[in-house]
Write a structure and sequence with these properties.
This protein is mainly beta. It has a single domain (about 5-305), classed as Glycosyl hydrolase domain, family 43 (Tachylectin-2, Chain A), CATH 2.115.10. The protein has helices at about 75-85, 250-255, 295-305, and strands at about 5, 25-35, 35-45, 50-55, 65, 85-95, 100-105, 110-120, 125-130, 135-140, 150-155, 165-170, 175-180, 195-205, 205-215, 220-230, 240, 265-270, 275-280, 285-295, 305. Strands 14-15-16-17-21 form a five-stranded antiparallel sheet, covered by helices on one side. A hairpin with an 8-residue loop joins strand 10 and strand 11. The model has no long low-confidence stretch (mean pLDDT about 95). It binds beta-D-mannopyranose (BMA). Beta-D-mannopyranose binds near residues 89 and 264.
């Protein structure tokens, strides 16, 4: 049974829909703002570096792209040196009446995570670079825990397989109390590396986290999506991780593109009727959407589990 139903008219956004020159449209964050869906998507420019564009939609599937890019590498002194090679893979979290945007900042010094905020998706203010090198995939929870912000992230290490960690912060600038909470499983679809995907979604039975897992093959790596459920009060505690993937590259636009065999998510929108709109980049080239039943994803975490560690 397919837990994620692909939207019939995928891909929902491609470079042809963008009014400035880009090679790709992928790995987008999506949220609701002012009754509309806002999408912040990554695009490779023709020099191979990435910027972030913005699109809006009434229904979550048909998006209109703004005439100019939304975020390009900063020229503010604090950020310039660390964003020189581009900004990538945004995620959006709504908390304290503001939208927080995390993104990967690439430079000769490695990849760090930048944090910016906006109240209206017009004016954007950078808050800080909230990791050292080399980190990617930072997703911030939409609620605080004992007065602290919480985030999932994925540091790179030569010693340990690339795994999911949690950290906390009183002010979004200083992060600590870091702890490894989930690892890849050997000879399993996520055995090579895992990373947080969409910011966690609150359900009655726990925080649902949609993550990506990578499997190495003779034909390169395959990126798939899976689910994990975190305790509502203590997000460092993982109650269950679904043993099976929920989405893998199967359609032409997922199998072939800029990087083949990739489905990669940076955002999902829960709806009042218990469904989820899931968004993913297909083969690092186009944006795709699908729907899932939130309770079925939670069931997978609880009834067909593999160990988190
Ligand atoms: C990861 C990141 C993602 C990308 C994925 C597949 O390492 O670079 O942005 O979607 O690889 O190429």
């Amino acid at each position: 049974m397919n837990l994620v139903q692909r939207y019939a008219k995928n891909p929902i956004l491609t470079k042809e829909d963008v009014p400035y020159a880009v090679a790709t449209v992928h790995n987008a964050a999506v949220t609701k703002y002012g009754g509309k869906y806002i999408m912040l998507f990554r695009s490779h420019l023709h020099n191979g570096r990435s910027i972030i564009g913005k699109a809006e939609s009434e229904d979550g599937f048909n998006f209109q792209v703004e005439p100019a890019p939304f975020m390009t590498p900063s020229d503010e002194p604090e950020f310039q040196e660390y964003e020189e090679y581009g900004v990538e893979d945004p995620r959006i979290t709504f908390i304290d009446d503001e939208y927080l945007i995390t993104y990967s900042a690439y430079s000769k010094n490695g990849v760090r995570i930048g944090l910016a905020k906006t109240a209206d998706f017009r004016k954007i203010e950078r808050i800080g670079l909230i990791t050292q090198a080399d980190y990617r995939n930072v997703v911030i929870f939409p609620e605080k825990f004992n007065g602290l912000y919480a985030r999932l992230d994925r540091p790179h290490s030569e010693i340990s397989p690339w795994s999911i960690w949690i950290s906390y912060s009183p002010d979004l600038i200083y992060w600590g109390k870091s702890k490894l909470i989930m690892k890849p499983v050997q000879y399993h679809w996520d055995e090579m590396k895992i990373g947080p995907g969409a910011p966690p979604i609150k359900t009655e039975r726990g925080w649902l986290s949609i993550y990506h897992g990578v499997f190495p093959t003779m034909d390169g790596s395959v990126y798939r999506l899976g689910v994990a459920l975190h305790d509502l009060k203590d997000p460092a505690k993982i109650i269950g991780v679904g043993d099976d993937w929920i989405l893998q590259p199967e359609e032409v636009y997922e199998i072939t593109g800029y990087v083949h065999n990739v489905v990669f998510t940076c955002g999902a929108v829960p709806e009042d009727d218990g469904t989820l709109k899931l968004y993913w980049g297909g083969a690092d080239k186009v944006m795709c959407a699908g729907t899932a039943n939130i309770e079925e994803l939670v069931d997978l975490c609880l009834n067909n589990s593999r160990p988190a560690l």
